[in-house]
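Lecture 7 notes: from sequence to structure.

We start with a single chain of 198 residues. Read the sequence below before looking at the structure.
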Amino acid sequence: MFYKADEPHGLAYNPFKAIVAPRPIGWISTLDKQGVPNLAPYSFFNGICDTPMILMFSSGGMKDSAQHAADSGEFTFNYVSKRMKDEMNVSSGGYPRGENEFELAGLEMVAGETVACPRVKGVPAAMECKVIDLVQPTILDGTKSPYIMVLGQVTGIYIDDEMITDGRFDLKKSDPILRSGYHDYVTLDDVFELVRPG
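Now the structure, written as tokens:
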């Protein structure tokens, strides 16, 4: 089948998120202006470059995480392992602004080193970021997308020592869950290496 993106596809569900998958989950922690922690997972998330290291999460409208990151100028990405899937899911709820998702999900916080916002205790890894840009893309009809990309330059990286094997961050040990389409998540069942030609 082929369909134009602005026309009906005839399927029971939109396949876009299932095709652009799997995606890492950006479990983003921030602080609001009153110092209340916020924690929420974002499925439109990724690293966009490594020199300097920059992460991006995309928010459908100015949700709490995006607003707090814009106000404070910082956020922390927390790596989601399979064993924390339930806590991550709890933190995804549409709670009123000012609710502390760390408490709602039964999670402990660890103070940031280079940022004020905390990380989730027990995650395999976390990256502290300073906001460098907010981007609201202009789409083909000349209007602004309802999504806002929050770009942060990494200022500090935490790695659980148990996750390091032979000088590498061990994906099998970290056991990530990744976002797919619909209500689907995936896990790793194999890790293999391919070396580029040349």
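The domain at 21-187 is CATH 2.30.110.10 (Pnp Oxidase; Chain A). Keep this in mind for problem set 3.
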